[in-house]
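Students often ask why we bother encoding 3D structure as a string. The short answer is that it lets us treat folding as translation between two languages. Here is a chain of 342 residues written in the first language.
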Amino acid sequence: MIGKQTVLALVVWLAFGGPAIADSQYQVVAASEQYYAELSQNFHADVSSRVEATLALGQYQGANALIGIARASRDLNPDLRIAAIQAVRQWSDLAKWDVVSPLLADEVESVKRAAVYALLPLRHLLNAEQSAYVDRQTESYLNRLDDHPQSLLEKAQLNSLMTRYAEAEAFYTALLVSEHDAVFARALTVAYSQFLLQQQRASDAVTHLEAVLLSQTEQPTFSDSQQASIHYQLGIAYLKTGRSEAATMQFETAHTLDSNQPQYLYTYATALQAKQPERAATLFLQLYDATQDPRSLYATCQSQLMAAMDASSCISALRTMAPADVADTLVNQYSTPQTDNK
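And here it is in the second language, the structure alphabet:
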């Protein structure tokens, strides 16, 4: 079995890219890929392990990964078919189409739904025949949705993905004037603000989110974690309107309210990095210690270099997780040029 450190190093290499790797590294990649492919197709293994293995195959590009994911997409267990759809999220559009398109007509609703959401964002890149097929299958899925709030929210989101923005807005408007429990109200608030941002209506998103937070001040119904997601979304909207300092404050509030969400801390640290790199370095290191996410380690080293801190320990740690040229490039980017005094 491939060790976790080896797999993590492979993920880092795939994320950072870089030059060709050595033969020994190719052997490790191949062995890791084969391990996941065999587990994915092992009918005697429990379903959760097979699902995890199928998802892991998405980071590879070899024959074992292609075969493993293709077979998972045809497995009798719908969880495996959904895992195959999720595994190819980062693949090329053509490869994604080949795996996912047959599942648009899947008899299991959850599989069909996953396929629709995977391919609708590619709609504008497909040819006329493919696009028409996606539209038909999406309409088929839409027609089976009822009029409960969750279904109406799905109708709004799917119509938006189909670029039917007026229809999407109508569904959102109908939902916004109704009473909902806190969980759904939070989801609706975030979804509608994302819709507005996608429509380049950042000012409207700010107005909407500020109004929701004001209502929570007057009559709180959201939990801290639910409020945190609204503050985070407002931070994104502020960035879109050029209010970077206000955005940073919202990211900080989101992290304070829900410190268990790595995304909030990462975004807050990123917002601080340019003007307060030393503070950002502390936050990125805190995040790395908690998650072991290599992106946070890279950001820690970068922030330390930006702040002219001693980054030697961080760079050494980075060298154990990424190709040497990744660390070298980072160090060279922030090194002081030598002046020729001759």
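Translate back mentally: The radius of gyration is 23 Å. Keep this in mind for the problem set.
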